[in-house]
Amino acid sequence: MKIGDLSRATGVDVRLLRYYEAQGLLTSRRSEGGHRHYGPEAPAAVARVRTLLAAGLTTKVIRELMPCFVGDGTELQACVLDHIRTQLTEMDTRIADLTQARTALAGILASSTQALTPA
């Protein structure tokens, strides 16, 4: 399958497919003319990458996980589940930090608005 065909099949822009390949998330073979050709597993791999990106994982983490998938879905081998748990814990920490920052910013806005309101 050529890159344009893969783009149409997955709804993913050709530039993104090239990026995924550059990041080691997708593989192709080259024709004598230098054109990319993808195997029949490529649409499932692209769907997997899109799902994991939407889940907040970086391309680096996704690249590490790519050899550990079971089947065509996003199910992973048990040996990497601790890695996923670590990612989830780190995400929870970032959410908590952002929640605190939001609360502080909302407080600043409220007190500033109150101070600017004539009595």
Automatic annotation (TrEMBL):
* Any one GO molecular function term: DNA binding
Q: Which SMART domains match?
A: HTH_MERR
Q: Which InterPro entries match?
A: DNA-bd_dom_put_sf, MerR-type_HTH_dom, MerR_fam
Q: Which PROSITE patterns match?
A: HTH_MERR_2 (PS50937)
Coiled coil segments of this chain: none
Task: Give every HTH merR-type domain span.
Answer: 1-68
Gene3D superfamilies noted in UniProt: 1.10.1660.10
Superkingdom, taxonomy of origin: Bacteria
Q: Keyword set for this entry?
A: DNA-binding, Repressor, Transcription, Transcription regulation
PANTHER family according to UniProt: MERR-FAMILY TRANSCRIPTIONAL REGULATOR, REDOX-CYCLING DRUG-SENSING TRANSCRIPTIONAL ACTIVATOR SOXR
Q: Per its record, how is this protein called by name?
A: MerR family transcriptional regulator
Query: Which species expresses this protein natively?
Result: Actinomadura litoris
